[in-house]
């Protein structure tokens, strides 16, 4: 790993970790990412929470037709974060390569239970499970456990969708989904697809969570070296990651809600270039952040 032990010791003594972004174009794949994987594995951050919410003021830049947006897009992906292919058990040889897709009962049970509890807390009436149980043995175990646990939540509707079909339905009818539970690799892919629907990857937030223990929050975008130093990056993904932090690690749902409202209010006055509007001022990273901060201050003083 490329994470120094001294840094990891500091992380372990913290309440939460707010992570920025990493990666450089001249680094081979996996070099920078190994630091993130170490944090996830060693801290057992088994929940990856990724909200995908289209603010009403951004409907105009959503790539979908209005009829497909329907009543709006507000999905939370609950992704298993420590098992599956991303556990990185495998080898690369000259003429072959392999990775082990390992699911355990313990790993499936705890993430699926969290998904149902999350849906219950949010007032969602449906949990969707995304897998590939028609082909993959790990997905068959996942689906079996999903239905076992669902029996304890009689008031919550359940549905199973194969990953390939879900990718289609996420475009055709995203308004149908609320809480979506899935495995590590599938969750990585479909949550990025979802972020595209809300305007920009720069809007995407996430939490790597172990309830009651040190957790890590980060935007889903990379380091964007192509725009480094230009001051045009969208800070909203990071700001919404702080919102998640208050809600999931500190149970401060009121503050989380105020951050959400401040973001929506700011988007009506100005935007960074990636989510720009001809009728609104284009803001720099700092200007966007300051506008949201000022909106939040006003709301908290009220």
UniProtKB/TrEMBL annotation:
GO MF terms, alphabetically ordered: 3-isopropylmalate dehydrogenase activity; magnesium ion binding; NAD binding
Pfam families the record matches: Iso_dh (PF00180)
Cofactor: Mg(2+); Mn(2+)
InterPro entries: IsoCit/isopropylmalate_DH_CS, IsoPropMal-DH-like_dom, Isopropylmalate_DH
GO cellular component entries: cytosol
Gene3D superfamilies: Isopropylmalate Dehydrogenase
Listed EC numbers: 1.1.1.85
Positions in coiled-coil regions: none
Record's keyword annotation contains Amino-acid biosynthesis: yes
Signal peptide: none
Domain Isopropylmalate dehydrogenase-like: 1-292
A Gene Ontology biological process term: L-leucine biosynthetic process
Keyword terms of this UniProt record: Amino-acid biosynthesis, Branched-chain amino acid biosynthesis, Leucine biosynthesis, Magnesium, Metal-binding, NAD, Oxidoreductase
PANTHER family per record: 3-ISOPROPYLMALATE DEHYDROGENASE
Subunit structure: Homodimer.
Name the UniProt record assigns to this protein: 3-isopropylmalate dehydrogenase
Organism of derivation: marine sediment metagenome
């Amino acid at each position: 790993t490329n994470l120094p032990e001294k840094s990891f010791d500091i992380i372990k003594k913290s309440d939460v970790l707010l992570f920025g972004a990493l990666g450089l174009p001249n680094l081979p794949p996996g070099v920078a990412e190994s630091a993130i994987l170490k944090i996830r594995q060693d801290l057992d951050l088994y929940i990856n929470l990724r909200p995908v919410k289209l603010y009403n003021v951004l409907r105009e830049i959503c790539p979908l037709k209005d009829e497909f947006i329907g009543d709006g897009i507000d999905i939370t992906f609950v992704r298993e974060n420590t098992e599956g292919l991303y556990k990185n058990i495998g080898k690369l040889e000259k003429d072959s390569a392999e990775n082990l897709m390992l699911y355990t009962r313990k790993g499936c049970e705890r993430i699926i239970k969290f998904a149902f509890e999350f849906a219950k807390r949010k007032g969602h009436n449906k949990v969707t499970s995304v897998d590939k149980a028609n082909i993959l043995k790990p997905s068959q175990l996942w689906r079996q456990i999903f239905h076992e646990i669902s029996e304890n939540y009689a008031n919550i509707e359940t549905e199973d969708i194969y990953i390939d079909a879900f990718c289609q339905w996420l475009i055709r009818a995203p308004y149908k989904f609320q809480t979506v539970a899935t495995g590590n690799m599938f969750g990585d892919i479909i949550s990025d697809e979802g972020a595209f629907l809300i305007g920009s990857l720069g809007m995407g937030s996430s939490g790597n969570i172990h309830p009651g223990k040190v957790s890590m929050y980060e935007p889903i975008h990379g380091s964007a070296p192509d725009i480094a130093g230009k001051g045009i990056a969208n800070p909203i993904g990071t700001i919404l990651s702080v919102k998640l932090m208050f809600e999931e690690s500190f149970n401060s749902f009121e503050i989380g809600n105020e951050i959400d409202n401040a973001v929506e209010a700011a988007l009506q006055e100005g935007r960074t270039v990636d989510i720009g509007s001809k009728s609104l001022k284009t803001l720099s990273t700092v200007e966007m952040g300051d506008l949201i901060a000022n909106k939040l201050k006003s709301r908290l003083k009220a």
